[in-house]
UniProtKB/TrEMBL annotation:
Protein name (database record): cellulase
Keywords, in A-Z order: Glycosidase, Hydrolase, Signal
The species this protein was found in: Apodospora peruviana
Reactions catalysed: Endohydrolysis of (1->4)-beta-D-glucosidic linkages in cellulose, lichenin and cereal beta-D-glucans
A molecular-function term among this protein's GO annotations: cellulase activity
Amino acid sequence: MKLSLSAIAAACVFATSASATIFYAGVAESSGEFGVWSATSAKGTGLPGRFGVDYSFISTSGIDVMVDQNRVNLFRVAFLLERMCPPSFGLGAKFNETHFGYFKESIEYITKKKGAYAILDPHNYMRYNDPSSQPFSGSVIGNTSDPTAATTAQFGSFWGELAKRFADNEKVIFGLQNEPHDVASSLLVSNLQAAIDSIRRSGAKNLIIAPGNSWSGGHYWTKGGADANSNWIHKLVDPLNNTAVDIHEYLDQDFSGGHLACTQDPATNLAGVTAWLKEHKLKAFITEFGGSNTTACVTMLNGMLDYMAQNEEYIGWTAWAAGMFLSRPFAVFQLQTYERIHQDMLTILLFQIGPFWGPNSPCCTDSAQFGSLEPGSKAADGGPSLYDTIWLPVIQKKVPAKLQWSGLASVNGGTLSTKGA
Ligand SMILES: *[C@@H]1O[C@H](CO)[C@@H](O)[C@H](O)[C@H]1NC(C)=O
Ligand SMILES: *[C@@H]1O[C@H](CO)[C@@H](O)[C@H](O)[C@H]1NC(C)=O
Ligand SMILES: *[C@@H]1O[C@H](CO)[C@@H](O)[C@H](O)[C@H]1NC(C)=O
Ligand SMILES: *[C@@H]1O[C@H](CO)[C@@H](O)[C@H](O)[C@H]1NC(C)=O
């Protein structure tokens, strides 16, 4: 008999600490998904891309600052399925070993050299074969009406292989997919379950985080009728009971992360998903959230970080976003889109990207160039970046003094200590 996650977790309730604790805190590293956007949706654009030119994974100096000075222990590292598994191979267990090598090097820098935890983030919106107009292009994985779509079994096979390669690294966390959307929740759960089964068959015990549908929006968790996340995501079964839920939540009018103004109160909007987590005895990470440097955003970001710290359902978070920052004065600018499109409204932001984020902002600025959360980044006018105005004075103050620095990442957390203690 298969037990649902909720039944399993219910039985474990006495083993978990009743007090609210954030065990993992840090920042999303966006760059590995760069370099593929095409104004004409030309399939194959930017593939495989030039490592360090079109895309990258981390800047080691940024990671150094974040861990050594800021004492964060979690990074979420984006990559593209079409680079790990080139379309000529298809999605599955056959990887581009050169590309995998670059990725592994970044993950080992974070986990082995710096001792922090890393979420592997296939930034694909549950789609594969054409990232040229992410988040909408490409066939939905498991769409049996689309002969060009990768299958649910292929998605499982991909995760089984990736998991096998990191199974000996207890600081690696498997983020199954970034922001699935416009896919039936039954198919989403089938795909996620195939990945969980395949990961566990590979022998990996690592923490898994499973995303919700509808862009993983926390505010939308109980909405959407029969397809609501609250009707589906707790049906996932993990034989090792080490799967948490992956939620995203922005604070602007349409929850897109595109706007400068913060108007959506986090505690109000997260109440539904928190109640659902409590009902099913599940734990969660919020792996994308953010705000600009307005007074209202500062208040709401504080509110959101306090809310996670005070509700035991939340065990970790990564703010959106840091990312590769190269101070190359001659930067070759390339056109990129960064699109944050959530259930309620469509927001497409066109950015001039060069050297990666450069002075551009990963979220929350109405396309103004206020820099990113990457240490050392600057706004386009040379003024302080979001790292200076939001990370250091706001988010950094909510990084707990004690986090988990050793042992397997787990839904139950681990031993808390200060870095180096
Ligand atoms: C998972 O939870 C169930 C229900 O509490 C329990 O029977 C099972 O032993 C657990 N499995 C592991 C590997 O802890
Ligand atoms: C594999 O990755 C390397 C490095 O990015 C690239 O040069 C090569 O063309 C890729 N191979 C395929 C089949 O995509
Ligand atoms: C599945 O594929 C069919 C055929 O291409 C398409 O009409 C349909 O919109 C696809 N479904 C999803 C969820 O993308
Ligand atoms: C936010 O930061 C940008 C870039 O440094 C700056 O131009 C702007 O005035 C700041 N806004 C507020 C409200 O402080």
